[in-house]
Amino acid sequence: MIVAFSVSPLGVGEDVGEYVADAVRVVRESGLPNRTDAMFTSVEGEWDEVMDVVKRAVAAVEARCGRVSLVLKADIRPGVTDGLTSKVETVERYLAAP
């Protein structure tokens, strides 16, 4: 499964990068395949391990601010691995076709 999620602290002003970095650090230290862009962090793995990472990422932000917003989207497709790469490669292949 792939989960794309965004964790945002509430009540701390506009500069949230330091808080978001705490969440992303948890994801990267998990060892699961992941990717971060301007809006979301995506992580790939089995249901329990991915959700555990999301929970710990939220907790890391919550520990510093007390209130957190979480947006989560999941692609639940058993048996598929390396979706973070293969899904993008498929789109790029179609874009490159005449």
Tags for this entry?
single chain; 98 residues; alpha+beta; four-stranded antiparallel β-sheet; 47% helix; 23% strand
Can you describe what's shown?
This protein is of the alpha+beta class and 98 residues long. Helix content is 47%, strand content 23%. It is built from 3 helices and 4 strands. It has helices at residues 17-29, 47-65, 83-96; strands at 2-9, 34-36, 41-44, 68-75. The protein has a 4-stranded antiparallel beta sheet, covered by helices on one side. Helix 1 runs antiparallel to helix 2 (47-65). The longest helix is centred in the middle third of the chain and has 19 residues, at 47-65. The radius of gyration is 15 Å and the shape is globular. The relative contact order is 0.25.
Quick description:
It contains 3 helices and 4 strands. It has helices at residues 17-29, 47-65, 83-96, and strands spanning 2-9, 34-36, 41-44, 68-75.
Order of strands across the main sheet: 2-3-1-4
Large-scale geometry: globular
Question: How many strand segments?
Answer: 4
- Could you list the spans in which at least 5 consecutive residues all have pLDDT below 50? none
Largest sheet: number of strands, sense, barrel closure: 4 strands, antiparallel
Distance between the amino and carboxyl termini: 32 Å
